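Might I ask for a little of your time on a matter of protein folding? The record follows directly beneath this note:
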Amino acid sequence: MSRVNELQNIVRVYEAASRAGSVAALASVVNVAGSTYRRIGAHMLVTEDGEATGAISGGCLERDVRRHATWVMQSGRPKHLVYDSTGDDDGEDRFSLGCNGVVEVLVERLLTDSAYMAFLADCVRESESAVVATVFSSCPESSIAMGSRLLWHPSKGSIALGVGNARHRQILEDAAAAALATGASSARIFDTCPGPLAVSFEIIERSPTLVIFGGGHDAVPLAEMAKAQGMKVVVADPRPGHATRVRFPAADRLVAEEPAAAVDLLELDSDSLAVVMNHDYRRDFAALGALLPAPIRYLGVLGPKRRTQRLLEELACRGIAGTEAQLARLYAPVGLDIGAETPEEVAFAIVAEMKAVLAGRCGGLSRERQGPLHESGDFARGSLSATALPLAINRVAA
């Protein structure tokens, strides 16, 4: 399950609990160091009846976090937990993280009118990118308490929750914009008077849109798997009985248009992906010709390499020769080379390839990767005041 889909489920469960008048607790990974299973921005929602949605580890921390969540729901006070598996002590009081790293988790109570959750719900429904800056550690004398937030949207501005100082708010807004520009969630320590402030910057990702050109039987598992990964799925096919709600019940949109008309109608952008699988040479030719100039992130074409090469040559003869940049985002044959044969296996290979492209990876074997699977979660240092103070965070033992 993708982070986008996980967040969608958390919002859905929270809203159901709110309608029932119940409080909940949200556990969020706010910082990591070394090797960890989940990264900054992973969440787990715990409701009063004990139901848990999402995960903040591979299963080794959830039980203890749920215990803290019960206390937080009752007391209303947030908790900052630190789980450290970097030492050599494997005693009974340590947690078997299965990796050599540190995970910091903020657990907080959510009331039925949480402005933070309303902001997340809007981002999920409107499929918009945003940044959530969360204070997860501060000294007792600080004017910004643990759990304070700045909710920042690149076009709608920000919402301050517990950040009253205008200068502090501006600096956090600037840091949020910088985080979004990098495309990676991160944690920073700011020097403040009277003490350091630890802030997590979580990027709320925009759901990518996948347009499947062709509504054949092999497009059905692709639409289902892509939807399960949090993508917005569009199926375009003008043939009767193909792009129908019966065949694609989970699709966000069905377009009964020829490929060129569908591309014009959909207004694809840099967050869009497309797969051409009409099983019809004429329609594949039209789709590829319309999609090559489009500013999309990924273009996959089903079928043998020589067939796609023939399509490209005929397009070039008609004045539609793909540029080097356009051809670089063309994946044909589509999908990772995993020996896929059945429609389900082919769909699996395509979704895995799209995930690799979105993550900036090549999709090779993890054991052959040089370096860590994830970037380091070490703190960056900033400043909220002119007073530079020693770096020291008061960690609350789990």
About this structure: The radius of gyration is 24 Å.
